[in-house]
Amino acid sequence: ARLIKKDLDGAQEDFEADIEMEPDLPEAHYALGTVQSMRGNLPAAAEHLDNAVRIKSNYAVALPLRGNVKDRRKDFAGAVKDYNRVLEITPRFTTVLYLRAKSLRDVKEYHKSLMDLDEFLEAAPDFVEGVYLRSNVRAMTGDFEGAVADLDRVIELDPKRALAFSNRGLARFRIGDKAGAVADLRKAMAMDPSRKAKIEAVLEQVEDSEPAVLTAKSAPEPGVVAVPVDEEDLPKKSGKAAGPESIDGSGQEETFFVP
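Predicted structure:
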């Protein structure tokens, strides 16, 4: 009850008392792992979730949370293993497909990530984070047309998401739609003044460049295609027709597309 009310201190006391009374109670370890995860204490969360799974190996509730904790600790391969196990136990646990797709992206298994996202979005077509993630992964495989289509849908579902306009602008640039790219980047800049300097720097590159059209067929082999960089790392303007680089350094989910 305390956890439901988000009384984390009280919940932690209760679950620690449960474990003291019954050290091998998997539900108590899972619950305490949940509390520690909510607190951001990932090592402690991992310890209790490991205990829960050790005691109850097919614990289909604890495994996805442990996978999420591993993902947050950058153990993407470990997260994928936990998600694989969940889907072996409960194949219809569709939310796990989305979680696994994120981790698969981060181990550069882009095509497997897309397979999970396609299946997940069949069940949850309006889940905006899933559509947004697929746009990112599609761009990583060089499918910028697919990325634009997904970002159209993201903007339809969440029209206030400035980063969707930024990403769509750069994806449009990669398919030769320079006018559309400029319009999207200007829209993003107006929507998100906190990123004005970064977006302006890329907008200058777009306006001064000729788009080098890439399709899924002509793109290079998948690799590091979406890389967050700091503003000072942006390429300086030159006479070359280079594509714009990433302009966001804030993390995995806020990434711009690069060729």
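Summary: The chain is about 60% helix and 0% strand.
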